[in-house]
Write a structure and sequence with these properties.
By secondary structure, this protein is α/β, with parallel strands linked by helices. Helices cover 45% and strands 13% of the residues. Helix 5 crosses helix 8 and helix 7 crosses helix 8. The chain is globular and about 70 Å long.
């Protein structure tokens, strides 16, 4: 085990030296301040590296990852990342990025007892329950892939319901939420066409506008 860790540290030294040779000012420039336009909310899967997929260097993408790329309304980790990205970094684009063949989504679809992760994936299982009848005729793999898409679309909606994003829209900040799915088999990203860019596109029930009935005259 010690040799494995030493190997990683040696990899780091070689990488840092190579970057320094190719661009002597790289690290001094990077250390000054990050100024990304993009927030990537993706899956923890090791096969889905944010920067590499969209071919951007370090410092260009602010990243949050968790199992099955979920945004829960009570997840202080994700919401803190979201607030920092919007209010401090001023990101203009938020990409929710799932991937086909996601193990978390598969666990929610296949059912069974998966331990603690089932608590985290409860919302995905509820989403599958809503679509189960329409997906029933598909093989399991195709059900999982379709659920990966539906899950991304659901997280885009969840983001649009947060006061963090709605306040940004209310004050005129330009920020859009996009839904993507990455294909492990071909390295291509599919845009699901569910982008939301303004308060008027958020579901009325969840808007921060006052929805209470007007008082009787």
């Amino acid at each position: 085990m010690k040799k494995e860790i030493e190997g990683l540290l040696e990899n780091n030294r070689r990488w840092a030296a190579q970057v320094q040779r190719d661009d002597p000012a790289f690290f001094s420039r990077l250390s000054q301040q990050q100024n990304p336009d993009y927030l990537w909310i993706g899956c923890s899967d090791s096969r889905v590296p944010a920067n590499q997929i969209i071919s951007l260097p370090p410092g260009e993408v602010f990243v949050h990852r968790n199992v099955a790329n979920l945004v829960h309304h009570n997840d202080l980790n994700a919401l803190s990342v979201l607030q920092y990205a919007i209010e401090m970094l001023g990101v203009r684009h938020i990409m929710v990025v799932g991937h086909y063949g996601c193990g978390g989504v598969k666990a929610a679809v296949a059912g069974g007892d998966n331990g603690m992760v089932d608590i985290w994936l409860h919302s995905v299982r509820e989403l599958y329950s809503q679509h189960r009848q329409s997906l029933a005729s598909l093989p399991l793999g195709e059900q999982v892939d379709r659920m990966c898409e539906l899950n991304v679309e659901a997280q885009v909606r969840n983001l649009s319901r947060t006061k963090i994003i709605q306040h940004a829209w209310q004050r005129g900040q330009q920020v859009s939420v996009h839904g993507w799915v990455y294909g492990l088999a071909d390295g291509r990203v599919k845009d699901l066409g569910c982008t939301l860019s303004g308060l008027d596109q958020a579901e009325a029930l969840y808007r921060i506008e006052d929805l209470s009935p007007a008082p009787a005259q």
